[in-house]
Amino acid sequence: MQIILGITGGIAAYKAADLARLLTHQGHRVRCVLTEAGARFITPLTLTSLTGEPCYGANPDQGEWRANPSVEHIELARWADLVAVVPATANIIGKAANGLASDLLSTLLLATRAQVLWAPAMNTGMWEHPAVQANLARLRSFGHAVVDPGEGVLACGEEGSGKLADVLSIAEAIRAQGTPKLSSLSGRRVIITAGPTREDLDPVRTLTNRSTGAMGIELARAFRDVGARVQLVLGGDLPSPWGVETLRVRSAQQMLEACEARWAGCDGLVAAAAVADQRPEVPSAQKIKKGEGTESLHLVRTPDILAQLSASRRTDQWVVGFAAESENHLDHAMAKLRNKRLDAVLVNDVQGGQAFGAQANTLTPITAQGPHPPIGPLPKDQLALAVVRWWSQRLENRLT
Ligand code: C5P
User: 2-178 and 189-278+298-399: same fold?
Assistant: First the structure.
């Protein structure tokens, strides 16, 4: 994408440099526009060095690139696919909400037809003021996105809300806003299960597996990016992605309960979790001591979450499962599709340690029509987007 990064005058402006670096590293072209106050906190040299692109000042005589100064705001407004204002002060928010254009950034915000994203940062009193909240509501009504600030100790010494959202979350929000929406999934509610489950033996020991949850998390991000409202039911320790409602669970039973409570309100399920198939029959309340002679565990089956949700589904709900097999994977997956009454199964070949924790992966989709061409090998984030596109195409053509 071609991104204009507007930087206004707050101490959090130094974090915009990190965002500029991150977005450039992700392959975007980033041009920074500083307001007069922004330029007191961070220099154009820092930003041009990080982005390899020109940086612009508040007024026509301050920039470093002068193709046609008289219409510069229009050229920049046209160049951008997305304008992100990070950090956004109460002042620029107020100006943009009311159509005021007094410098390069406010003028190009008025002129652009690109998407606009705001990451406000300010003192708690200012953030909570009805004028600021009303101005942000107005910007949202224009279709702009807002990444709300977090809470913490602010530069002014106060503690409260108003701290710039973390740079990784802002980059996630930019990615989500910049991805074209898919009509068959936009606004749809999707449950995604991800990660391992943990079945406790006693207060210190647990039965689990090698899944990290990375693929499920990438799927959650990809569904979010194309416009779905994602509920991620997540086992394991990986951080939850921005813009996704995450429910953390431990055991298969907890995962089932979290899914069941939400299933009626959802359009689809993607079961990417590596659910433990067995659990100790009675977890011990105390740490189990070393015994003498051979020791054995008595295990019982955990609920099959995917099979249970699939069995209770309405005709308008769709269900996609995963299969991680080390042999005869297509045959096993076909059997799974039939037994669990699934619309599709995505098959992982886990032979030789593939899939779990790996950076790149290949998935072979199976439907009632049989196997489809494999998707990948691709890094997991790109693979997730390719899978979501494949699935949305099928939903559009009503092939489920
Ligand atoms: O039967 P199998 O465990 O191989 O099926 C794998 C698929 O079923 C995956 O989509 C997995 O998330 C789901 N599953 C489940 N609950 C279980 C076992 C598997 O949802 N107890």
Answer: yes
